[in-house]
Amino acid sequence: MPRRAYSVAFSIGLLGLAIGPVASQSGNHGQGHAENHDWYQQLKQPGTGYSCCNGTTNGIEGDCRPTRAYQTDDGTWRALINGRWVPVPPRVVLQQLAPDGNSHICASRSGMIYCFLGGSPKS
C-alpha cells in the first residue's frame, strides 16, 4: 500500500475515534440510556422527588442520556437535545456530578427537561 494510502487510512481511523464519544453525547432520545440506566434510576427531580428516569417501557428507551453542554457567562446551562442547543431551566439542574463527570439530561421526546447534570467543567 502506498504511503499516502496509509496516511489517509490512519486519518480516517483517528476521525472515527474522535467522533465516537461525540456521537454518544449527542443528546438524542434513547442514545446512551442503557449504559447508564443503573444510576439514572437513582436520580430524583428537584422539588418533587419524582424519578428523572422512566426506565425502558415496552422496549422504548428511557428519557435520560449523555449530552454535551456548556455554561453561559451568566451561569445558566445550555444542552444539546436531539440536535438542538436549548437552555436548561435552573429548577431542573441537579447539584451533583455524574459518575463519568460528563453532562447528562433527562428529557421527554418533546423536549420537556426533567433533570440535568452538568459536566466538569464542560463536556
Main attributes of the structure:
alpha+beta; 2 helices; disordered N terminus
Structure report:
- With 123 residues, the protein is an alpha+beta fold.
- The protein has one domain.
- The protein contains 2 helices and 6 strands, in the order H-H-E-E-E-E-E-E.
- The chain has helices at 3-24, 33-40, and strands at 64-67, 69-71, 77-81, 84-88, 103-107, 113-117.
- Strands 1-5-6 form a 3-stranded antiparallel β-sheet. A 3-stranded antiparallel β-sheet has the order 2-3-4, with no helix packed on it.
- A hairpin with a 2-residue loop joins strand 3 and strand 4.
- The longest helix has 22 residues, at 3-24.
- The chain is globular, with a radius of gyration of 17 Å.
- The relative contact order is 0.18.
- The model is unreliable at 3-23 (pLDDT under 50).
Layout of helices and strands, plus pairs?
Elements: H1 3-24, H2 33-40, E1 64-67, E2 69-71, E3 77-81, E4 84-88, E5 103-107, E6 113-117
Antiparallel strand pairs: 1-5, 2-3, 3-4, 5-6
> DSSP strand (E) fraction?
15-25%
Helix content: 10-25%
Radius of gyration: 17 Å
Oligomer: single chain
Low-confidence stretches: 3-23
How far apart are the first and last residues' alpha carbons, in Å?
39 Å
* Overall spatial form: globular
Query: Element order, helices and strands?
Result: HHEEEEEE
Q: Output the structural class.
A: alpha+beta
Q: Could you describe the largest sheet, including whether it forms a barrel? A: 3 strands, antiparallel
The strand order across the widest sheet is 1-5-6
